[in-house]
Amino acid sequence: MLGWTLIGAGRIGGALQARALAKRRPVRMLGRHDDWRELDAPAGAPVVVCTRNDDLPAVLARIPAHRHADLVFVQNGMLRPWLAANGLQDATRGLLFFAVQARGAAIDPGPPSPFFGRHAEAVVAELVALDVPAEVVDAAQFAAWELEKLLWNSIFGLLCQAHACTVGAVLTAHRDEIAALNAELLAVGQRALGVKLDSAAVLQRLVDYSAAIPQNRAAVKEWPWRNGWFVAEAARQGVALPEHARLCQMAGV
In which residue ranges of the chain is pLDDT below 50? Predict the structure, then answer.
């Protein structure tokens, strides 16, 4: 891989750029106010999109059509409907399993970040060169990790907001609600993505991860890409989400 092309100069993009520069790896950062004409170059090299989900339409509008196949999306949330609607269903995807606490902070690596798609091997090789664990996975593995990460964001964001407390407090006082939400949302997600996961094992991994970040205080955000996707998908499937609905009311969502 001939270095990075990163779109988005925020928390994630900035941390990746800083790590690349520290490792003396070539890197190009494109922010919203930069000249993006270099993307007119021939297709072939991956372009990693690190912007917020809600900025994706504006980003896509600035990228030449012949480079769409080179895009690598690393956002949280359920991107599949948006990707399909824009002819990007075959785009390379990644889930970033590392923390950047604030803009300008360093990367705190976690377990290997999974990538799937055309440019997965190239992106994984670059991350590993930056001492950021990453791995190439197949479509089924990626869908399973995608759903599990979406569950954590949606469940703990809702519970932290509904009870005005930290992740650790949710684990201590609201374990039954974690289990109820996991059962409701996992069933919807499995039907939507065509994957089969063990509910008890998923719940345990959600709890184990949360126990490692007890001071974190999540919240409901990016609704169409997270909780809102479960609500819309449940309606499409003709099923109810009573526990989710009750907690949304408590959270003022």
Answer: 1
Distance CA 117, CA 135 (A): 12
Give SS3 for 121. Answer: helix
Query: What is the reported pLDDT for 72?
Result: 98
* Strand-pair partners of 29: 6
pLDDT of residue 2: 54
Measured between alpha carbons, how far is 186 from 196 in angstroms, rounded to an integer?
9
pLDDT at residue 1, rounded to an integer: 46
pTM given for the model: 0.92
Q: How many residues does the chain have?
A: 253
Residue 105 backbone zone (phi > 0: left; psi -120 to 50: alpha; other: beta): beta
Q: Looking up tokens 């609500």, which residue turns up?
A: 231
The answer to whether 163 and 169 have CB atoms below 8 angstroms apart is yes
CATH of 4-137, one of 3.40.1050.10, 3.40.50.720, 3.40.50.2000, 3.90.1570.10: 3.40.50.720
- CATH, domain 140-251, list 2.40.320.10, 3.90.550.10, 1.20.1250.20, 1.10.1040.10: 1.10.1040.10
Q: How far is CA 56 from the centre of its chain?
A: 13
What's the rounded Cα separation, in Å, for the pair 169 and 165?
Answer: 6
Per DSSP bridges, beta strands 71-73 and 92-94 are parallel
Kindly report, residue by residue over 43-67, the tens digit of the pLDDT.
889 999 999 999 999 999 999 999 9
Question: In the prediction, which pLDDT does 6 show?
Answer: 96
Q: At what angle do helices 227-237 and 242-251 cross, to 10 degrees?
A: 140
Phi-psi region of 162 (alpha: psi -120 to 50; beta: other; left: phi over 0): alpha
